[in-house]
TrEMBL record:
Source organism per UniProt: Magallana gigas
Protein's name according to its UniProt entry: E3 ubiquitin-protein ligase MIB2
Taxonomy, superkingdom: Eukaryota
Domain MIB/HERC2 span(s) in chain numbering: 173-245
Record region (Disordered): 316-350
GO BP term, pick one: protein ubiquitination
GO cellular component term of the entry, any: cytoplasm
InterPro entries per the UniProt record, alphabetical: Mib_Herc2 (IPR010606), Mib_Herc2_sf (IPR037252), WWE_dom (IPR004170), WWE_dom_sf (IPR037197)
Length: 419
């Protein structure tokens, strides 16, 4: 092998090209861009060339993509971790990557999205991510995006949202087909739990911040304990996955996170996936919860400084059961209402029609009320989620994955948009 050939083969993703391969290599940059678009729509492991091909074909303007392009895109996705700023070892028991330091930083396991101050183009593939570690540098958070890529970012601990690269959000990790568990999933004690109160109590919910190939996972519990547990290792399950849409689990997570919110008072903002901003402030003996309706993703209100603030603000004392019921009704009023069998879609106001695929593989139109609801949610946040009702059943539509999940059975179905 020549000297240049040895250099190429010793680099991360280097390879020797034949004269015939030069023409295809000129498309590498564009194929890299396509890979960044589809990376969030395929499983992080166990995917095939056919999975990549299906994801590519779902893109608009994909007619000129050849089989060789698909092979290149598959190769790029297979070696995705080589394109990280730092290559982290995924084989050791624990690394410095997963350490925690400043208590004002979001704890490991916290879900985040890009902030208004986002200078990294499509590095996140417009997905959510999970905090997997704290750093003692300006880029003080290590985030693993749902694409399994890990990068460092800055989170301002003084409450200046204009300086933070990421913001805390409440969007759960959604598993794709063939995915059994992933970073960002919520877990509780499983059938083979034998670790006493390491989790802080039987009902506590932890967050997965690392998944290993040996069928073990690393979990951070709300009491700050972190450890590795069996999830299929020797057929044993120390932990089991929680349903992130279960109302009991959601309330429990909110309770667990209150200590961090109280610590940062009203200087931080949690941005929900449905555009509902939530902040916590402390006034005397009572803790006041402020919900700002209508603030989109990345639009925040902090003290006297308002960035695209909403006009509608509801304040309530979190010790009031009546106020809590009120807030819950407001949160779900627009999501869970309606959804009858109205199928009249011949309306000039409809710019887009939405369909879901039934068990027979046929595409079915949504009722008009639910179609409009999905379209409005898509216009507000093309990566968010929305609740819809179809044939009497409640579904969570996950726009980032183009699927709907039955709230009761947890079965998922494909959805699509017709422009």
């Amino acid at each position: 092998m020549c000297f240049l050939g040895s250099l190429a083969c010793s680099s991360k993703t280097g390879k020797l090209l034949s004269p015939e391969g030069v023409v295809q290599f000129t498309k590498y940059s564009s194929n890299m861009g396509i890979a960044s678009e589809v990376i969030g729509n395929i499983p992080t492991t166990g995917y095939s060339v056919d999975d990549v091909k299906a994801a590519v074909q779902a893109l608009e303007g994909s007619r000129n993509i050849t089989e060789k392009d698909v092979d290149d895109i598959y190769e790029i996705l297979t070696h995705r971790h080589m394109y990280q700023i730092n290559s982290y070892s995924r084989d050791t028991i624990e690394t410095d990557l997963h350490s925690e330091g400043n208590p004002k930083l979001p704890p490991i396991g916290t879900r985040v999205r890009r902030a208004p101050n986002w200078p990294y183009n499509g590095q996140d593939s417009n997905t959510c991510g999970t905090v997997v570690g704290h750093n003692h540098r300006d880029l003080n958070l290590s985030i693993e995006w749902d694409t399994s890529m890990i990068f460092p970012y800055h989170f301002d601990t003084d409450g200046d949202l204009g300086r933070s690269n990421v913001v805390v959000c409440d969007e759960p990790r959604i598993l794709l087909q063939r995915e059994k568990i992933a970073v960002g999933c919520l877990v509780q004690r499983g059938p083979d739990w034998k670790w006493f109160d390491q989790d802080g109590g039987e009902d506590n919910v932890g967050s997965v911040y690392r998944v290993k190939d040996d069928k073990t996972v690393h979990v951070r519990w709300p009491n700050g304990n972190k450890s590795n547990y069996r999830f299929g290792y020797d057929g044993k399950y120390d932990v089991s996955i929680c349903d992130p849409f279960d109302e009991v689990i959601r309330r429990r997570i909110e309770e667990q996170q209150k200590s961090w919110h109280k610590m940062i008072n009203d200087s931080k903002k949690v941005v929900s996936n449905d555009g509902i901003g939530i902040s916590f402030s402390k006034e005397g003996r009572n803790s006041t919860l402020t919900i700002t309706i209508g603030i989109g993703r990345g639009m925040v209100e902090t003290g006297d400084s308002v960035i695209k603030a909403s006009e509608n603000v509801l304040e309530m004392n979190d010790s009031s059961d009546e106020a809590r019921r009120e807030s819950r009704a407001i949160e779900y009023k627009d999501e869970a209402s309606g959804g009858g069998e109205d199928t009249d879609l011949n309306n000039e106001d409809n710019n887009s029609l939405w369909q879901w695929k039934n068990e027979q593989g046929n595409w079915v139109y949504y009722p008009k009320s639910e179609n409009d609801k999905i379209q409005k949610a898509h216009e507000k946040n093309s990566r968010g989620t929305i609740l819809v009702r179809v044939n009497g059943d409640l579904y969570r539509v996950v726009l980032s994955k183009m699927i709907q999940i039955n709230i009761s059975s947890r079965e998922s179905q494909e959805i699509r948009r017709l422009s």
